[in-house]
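Thread: "does anyone have the structure for this chain?"

Original post by V.I.:
We have the sequence but no experimental structure in hand. Need at least a predicted one for the grant figures.
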Amino acid sequence: MINHIVVGTVLAMAALLTSAGQNNALACTKTAGCVMDVFHDDYAMKRDGRMEEAIKAGRANVEAFRALQAAEKAYYARRR
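Reply from O.Q.:
Generated one for you, tokens below.
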């Protein structure tokens, strides 16, 4: 029994350690870094209205989430 636990723990740790380095993140390969790209993208989003659209969508999402929470709270209050 203890042998199975030890083997399972070792296998789980090996799986975690091998998968830890497999992040599919985007890397910046520019010599000076990618900070200016972020600044330019931010400025472009503000200029063409995408920033405001994203903010409105985020606010609508928060309002919908709060409405769902209120509905769930009211539902469970009626069930008691």
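V.I.: this helps a lot. Residues 50-79 form the longest helix (30 residues).
O.Q.: and The chain has a mean pLDDT of 81.
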